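pinned: reference chain
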Amino acid sequence: MPNAALKAAREPASIRYKNPGAMWGGKHANTWGAVSDVVLKDGQANHIAVFPDFVHGAAAQFALWKVSYCNMSLAAAIRKWSGHNSSAAYMAFLGRHVGITAQTWITPALLASPKGLALMQAQAQWEAGKPYPMTDAEWRQAQALVFPDA
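pinned: its structure tokens
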């Protein structure tokens, strides 16, 4: 395998598949441009949607939070997102990186704000296990696709 292909294969799935939130494929992901759904070899048969670029993957992440995770606390949202998989550590990581607490209420206004941007960036870092390779401009572009009036 050439070095570039080997390096790409070592990247976390959320980076390889341009899916910052590591969301599953399906109707929602397809709405935001997902081109495929891959079953991960993680021992849990988890899936991940494949996006054509980072911006559309991040927009799908913002949009999924907007439609499925609003009107709940951060702690409840992370329990739901992660399927109760390391949710306490996940929530604590997000809280430290964003400056919010487990009791912070997730709303469209929060997601459209700078804190919402920081939340999605921190989530992407958690999912990848390292800083996510998107620029701040790309993150703002993704946020604007979902919250054009913000």
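why pinned: The chain has one domain: 3-146. The CA atoms of residues 1 and 139 lie 32 Å apart.
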